[in-house]
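Q: Sequence in, structure out?
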Amino acid sequence: MSGIKLTNVSLVRLKKGKKRFEIACYKNKVLEWRSGIETDLDEVLQIPNVFLNVSKGQTAPAADLAKSFGKDKPVNDIILEILKKGELQVGEKERAAQMDRVHNEVISIVASKLVDPRTKRVYTTGMIDKALDMLSQQAHQGDKSAVGSGAGTPATGEDAEAKPKAKEHNWTGVVTTKSAKSQALEAMKALIAHQPIPVARARMRLRITCTTNVLKQAVKAPAAAKGGDANEEHKAPGTVKDKILSYVEQVEQQDVMGSEWEVVGFVEPGAFKGLSDFVGNETKGQGRVEVLDMAVTHED
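A: Exactly. Output:
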């Protein structure tokens, strides 16, 4: 077989024994497979074969596969193992774009969940980005100097000593091998532990009211949904009620009184603007959002 053009292929590489094995996949499909979006192996693999070198078209001899993976292991199982455990090879431009994507997603998740405990206001993504940057610089200077550099944040110097466990929550920066959600959680723990800026987890307790005749109306899909937000693509917009409840993290109570529906529940601070804009626009003045309480929660 002649060489394969690497412009339209993603390689997944696994070192097993003393050999390096590769499989040729369609671009973007590996991550979809790993996240469970794509389940059809034929849609992932360009060629259902194991290679020593894809670009040279050099397939792996059966003897090498048997030696590294076990004598009776079917080729399909070997491919699945490489797909699951192998390292995804991407070009420099792709890697940078993917890193940017994950980085931006992590920052926006963190910014939507943390507040300044003194003012109970959310921070901008720029401030969260800077704070995490400070932490990753400290982590790269080593644990000891990171603790020593606490002088820069006198307000939390005592905290840092009182909680030796904080060292566990070091932030070294975004990687492309973990999901944005799990990294955002790590980032929040590190920010809460080290306090480069004053932060706390927070939730807003809201009361949302709306007339019942508006609730059943279908939500108009935003024009940009197809090209933009991945979450919008997966879930077709439901009713106004579905959409309102999708913003609420935890429902405390839900009632209908006459022609008015009311829900009391907790919302992430970062989701508040989207919810109040939605209620304002979609209910044409027949719905409202009231802030009952802004509770700073102390759990990680």
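Confidence is low (pLDDT under 50) at residues 144-167, 223-235.
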